Known about the structure:
Residues 79-119 form the PAS domain. By secondary structure, the protein is an alpha+beta fold. It has two domains: 2-89, no CATH class; 91-126, no CATH class. The chain is 37% helix and 23% strand. The radius of gyration is 28 Å and the shape is rod-shaped.
Amino acid sequence: MQFSNHVDELHDITYEGIPDHGHYNVPILSGGAVLGVIVLYLPPGYAYNERDVRFLQAFASTLSNIIRRKRTEDLLRESEARFRQIVENASDIIYRMDAEGRMTYVNPVGLRWMGYAEEREVLGKY
């Protein structure tokens, strides 16, 4: 975390006439990797405040969890799509039954082999 109460020599981006300001820079971390940075601009001369720091760090941690969760959901969705494509285009019969022996899934090859046009015609049957 970085804090500055005014534009100083550590300011990476500067230009002539830049208005004086302070800022907190708080990294959004996940397992040592930086996912992003929260930059909070402050009025010039703003005093460092430990309460601000705790809040911003908690906020960064929450954002990290949200980002990781979203990335995991995206990866799962991509994996499910690849699996669905493989199963739907397989040349073998692929089916799934529940504990009572009812059909819960049949791929297109299985439907054709059993003489059904649509999956809903066979789902739930023994």
